[in-house]
Specification:
This protein is α/β, with parallel strands linked by helices. The chain contains seven helices and ten strands. It has a six-stranded mixed beta sheet, with helices on both faces. Strands 2-1-4-5 form a four-stranded antiparallel beta sheet, with helices on one face. Strand 7, helix 6 and strand 8 form a beta-alpha-beta unit.
């Protein structure tokens, strides 16, 4: 599903060049569920942005679903991103005047899908996250956990193969965070989604079958053993 080979990412230029990722290589197979953990400044978000095709590496190669992304045009990049990748963030990024149904359906407009079909697809995605009875509610009528479920449904509505979640439980209380994590695990198991999740919460990380520890722009540890404390994300 995902192959990263010798990726570097620098910011700035000339004498002010700052290396953020350093010869990083990583392989994630279809259906894996991975936590990406590490201290602040270790490069987690930069790596997620590269995987999500929101930025390009300074050097190295990233292949997603067998496609080498290095030389894609802007239109080709947008197509790959829209078809293969779903994004979930700590902030829900929901439109306040739209219902849950219309928030979830919104990405499908850019794929040229008609209103009737995209609403049907959005309703299906909301049922998958347990919000069949909240489709007409606006974000301010939903709890934090329900808003995150809407955001997850929006990420799922295009039927992606790869789900990228950046601190998806960071704004939630511990009980709701645990419920959202259980939902991620269920979606991974039932839909075969490949999931890469950034978290600073050791309880959340411990529930992920694979933990990838980053430090100073490199992968410091990558195993399925007990999670060791690596600091706040």
């Amino acid at each position: 599903m995902l192959i990263i080979e010798n990726v570097k990412k620098d910011f700035g230029q000339g004498n002010t060049l700052v290396p953020v990722l350093r010869d990083l290589s990583l392989s994630v197979t279809t259906g894996e569920f991975c936590a990406l953990i590490g201290p602040s400044g270790s490069g987690k978000t930069t790596l997620m942005n590269l995987i999500g095709l929101l930025d390009r590496p300074s050097n190295g190669a990233i292949r997603i679903g067998g496609t080498n992304t290095e030389k894609l045009t802007a239109d080709e990049t947008a197509t790959i991103r829209g078809k293969l990748i779903g994004f979930i963030f700590q902030s829900f990024h929901l439109l306040p005047r739209y219902s849950a149904l219309d928030n979830v359906a919104l990405p499908l407009i850019y794929r040229g899908i008609g209103k009737v079909q995209r609403r049907a697809m959005a309703a299906k995605a909301l049922r998958e996250v347990g919000l069949a009875d909240r489709m007409t509610h606006r974000p301010d009528e939903l709890s934090g956990g329900q808003r995150q479920r809407v955001a997850i449904a929006r990420a799922l509505v295009g039927e992606p193969s790869l789900l990228l979640a950046d601190e998806p439980t960071g704004n939630l209380d511990s009980r709701t965070a645990d419920e959202i994590m259980s939902l991620f695990l269920t979606l991974n198991a039932e839909l075969g989604l490949t999931v890469l999740l950034v978290t600073h919460d050791p309880t959340i990380a411990a529930r992920c079958p694979r933990r990838i520890v980053m430090h100073d722009g490199r992968i410091e540890d990558d195993n399925c053993g007990p999670v060791r404390k690596v600091g706040a994300a």
